[in-house]
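Tokens for PX domain-containing protein. Go.
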Amino acid sequence: VGDPQKMGMINDIHTVYTVKTTATDPNSSGPLKASSTVLRRFRDFVWLFDALVSNNPGIIVPPIPDKNLRHRFQEGFIAARRVALEFFLQKTVNHPMLTSDPDLKLFLESDAFGLEIKHRKHDSSHQTGWLANIAGPRFVETDEFFENRKIGLDTLEGQLKVLQSSLAAASKARRAMAQSLSELAEALQVLSTSDLSKPVRNTIERLAGLHRQAHQWALDQATNELESLITTVEAYARLTNSVRLTFNGRVKSWDKLQSALNHLRKVQANHEKIKRSCAPSDQSTALMYSLAELEEAERKTHDARNEFADVSKLIKAEFQRFDQEKVEDFKLSICAFVDGLTDRQRQIVKVWQEYYQVLQHLSKQNADASSVPNHPNNGTNNTNTGGSSNTNANDQNNDNSGNHIGGSDNKNTDNIGNHIHHSSDDSHDNNSGEAGQAVTAQPTSAHSISSSTGIVSQEPEPSSSKLPDTVSSPVEPGMGEQKDGHDGHDDSRDPSDQLPQDHQPLLLPDDAAVWADHASPPSPAPLSPHHPVPHLPAYEQDIH
């Protein structure tokens, strides 16, 4: 059943379905043609269902979908009805007894079906549901098998309705999830066009494509796999009503048997009355007629009793077939649903694993780019250990016993010393007339030197004349002079020794150690009047 189309005028718009029949075994000699194609509307299916129920009492006829005038032209409703009608015909033609019904053959093969059914009148005494119990005598069930089956059928119907409601809610939620995934994919696609780096844009764009795939998978599962399971549940929920019709067929056979018994009792009473009025040797016409009527009533009663027994036996066989088909159909539907769900999950896991590998590769690239090693300047490889002073300045001025204030007269630009002048805030006091002492540190190439007292900016100074040594006491060994090949600083505890030569901090001597033998800090030595005032930095101008 497929290809639903709207047809008819304004006052008679209806949906027509194309019914195609194809024999699975073309060589089989069945009652139906090997192939046929006809157009049928919904009311034609209703006619066929009623005809099959009327012609085959005791047989569970597959159900047809319910009528719905409100949503009959909606696309989703038409698709669900088409699936239900196809389920009805498949079950009917595969039934060993229904497949030989003449009305089924007429429905599947007739090209003038509308005209032919007008001349066909079905049994008007066919009654279904509660109306059968009202029209005839009340039927009291005496077979325990049918009583238990009725209770089980009511329980099954309630469970199927609950399952149907749950599956419909799950399908609706999955459709909503598919819509959310589609919106998220669109948002990520827009984000991938923003002003970001190219690797990040590519990663976001790939994530958007992944969510588009997830959207399609969720939509397929909601429309195909889940609705296939829902169709099976709905079909068997309707099939419970068809099973109840078999009970009505049994009740109908029982009513027929009761009518035959009542007629037989009346005929027997009439025959006894005629027989008493006639002599034993009298073979009158009335007596012969009464005897023939009695035999006919007994035959009909016997046939009705056999029919009731056959219908009861047939219903039991139909229940057994119903249980087997129910297990097979639900097994196929659930297996198809689980297999589809498993395949979807495998695909989802696979694409997420591929995306995770992409993220790992991008993270590794970023880590390699950020871990480029910083090579130190190998040009200045002379390390400064502890507080030892550079001896180059002493080699240039061997005739001077003290340290120099200001710049050096040496013109060798490769050995320019850094001169730092220390004095206390009370260096201008009159308590001492000694000249200030300058400490010559190791020359460095940096213009900004970090020390324990602050940051000192290095600027080149013009050379000045040599000044007399005004400090008679020698400098402590730990303050700049090496003693026995070792300095006064612990190299193992100084983290600055691990730095490159260009970044070694300048170590300043302790004022207390320099002026240990003096009562007060010395005053700076006066400059020669003939010596030009050197250009000193701001902090040295403040000291002098």
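Residues 381-544 form one domain.
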